[in-house]
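Methods, example record. To illustrate the input and output format used throughout this study, we show the complete record for Telomere resolvase ResT/TelK catalytic domain-containing protein. The sequence lines were provided to the predictor; the line carrying structure tokens was produced by it.
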Amino acid sequence: YKERQNTRYRDTVNERRQRENRIEIDLTNSLRFAYTTLTQAKNGEEPNWMDVSCSIALATGRRMAEVHLSAKFEQVGDYAVNFTGQLKGKDRKVRVGDKKIAKRDVVFTIPTLLPAELVCVGLQWLGESGKRFSPDEDPERVNRRFSKTLNQACKQWDIFPEDERTYHKFRAAYLRACIVNDGNVDPYDFTDYAKEILGDDDEFLINFPVPTLVV
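The corresponding predicted structure is encoded as:
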């Protein structure tokens, strides 16, 4: 079984390497806009809350329900935060040291594409602006209240082709940028690294056609 699994994985890596399976993305404009938006929040100005939400999603790769309900960020570096509030598989127990704890309570240290201070400020700003639910609420409330509005707002972010712009795609853009920024990660053989920073084995996202980052 293990041999078959390894063979399938090698095939997946080889498929990612094929030019026809790559798409090109350019984060320059989006990261500049996100930086400006979060700086406005820091300076006490009044940015559009949807822009703040999208900026955090792009800079951290977190899901909509995490940004608007469960996520907690603690700055641990200029471009790194400790994240808790993982929602996918949130009730599953994972071993941390000599204990098993719910995945939602596991601390993930993740890179940020913008200064970590701004990311933390942005999340706090959303809460103070009434755009976050209590962490003990049902995450589906986020989808019911914000999904349509935020997915429409994503159309203004020119990362992917317009018909592919959704909130979840920020997660794909984040993953690719982190792979490029790290320098120690194989740009096509990155499953273990992806699990570390995404917090789960998101096979659809990990196997999404490999974006070529334009710098």
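Annotations derived from this record:
DSSP finds nine helices and seven strands in the chain.
The radius of gyration is 17 Å.
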